[in-house]
Predict the 3D structure of the following.
Amino acid sequence: MLQMQKPRLILEDGKRTDGRSFDQMRPISIELGVLKNADGSAIVQMGNTKVIAAVFGPREMHPRHLALPDRAVLRVRYHMTPFSTDERKNPAPSRREIELSKVIRESLEASILVEQFPRSVIDVFAEVLQADAGTRLVALMASSMAVADAGIPVKDIIAGVAVGKADGQLVLDLNEPEDMWGEADMPVAMMPSLGQITLLQLNGNMMPSEFKAGLELALKGINQIYELEKNALRSRFSEYKEEGD
């Protein structure tokens, strides 16, 4: 069986394979209100990873016996479109997609004031249009922005980025080769204004000192993303204001 040789991830000039420095993020774009049939929607793109999210609700739960008397039920579906990867993906939900739907739901639920909507349901659909590392975090952020676009009250919007280790070097916002061949991958998401982490996972190995430094590096990236998210929301709701005038 032919084994692929691990490529070099940090080049001789200290740059990564895509030309970035260790603490530089991929280009990010955020657009809200992209679907007229949804209560809230957003497209978030980081590098070549692109996710669209749609939110429906809060609305009455059917069947009613699944409703909760003191809060809304949050349902999240994370799904990769068949054309999102180099090889056509089976459209049926995989075990990984089911698992990530749960991970995203638990993270997102921490930010939503679900207790304000008893006996109702909020449905969130996150579709990965293009996958190139970091899909869970981009899906989470697109979902969070779509929830805010729907006018659902939240404690804070969520921002997230992955930190990893490539050729022994800590790097911010992994690309596909770093995600595949690196020694560690640590997705981090949080509500920045509250200083609360809503998602933290670690695949691979990090020393305690590397973990601490990685968390600080992630926080730096998260604060940059948070500013972009707030700008996108300001832009979106200034449109509403202008329409009202």
Q: What stands out?
A: The chain is about 30% helix and 30% strand. The first strand starts at residue 28 and ends at 32. Residues 208-244 form the longest helix (37 residues). Strands lie at 28-32, 40-46, 49-60, 73-80, 120-130, 159-166, 169-172, 184-191, 196-200, 203-204.
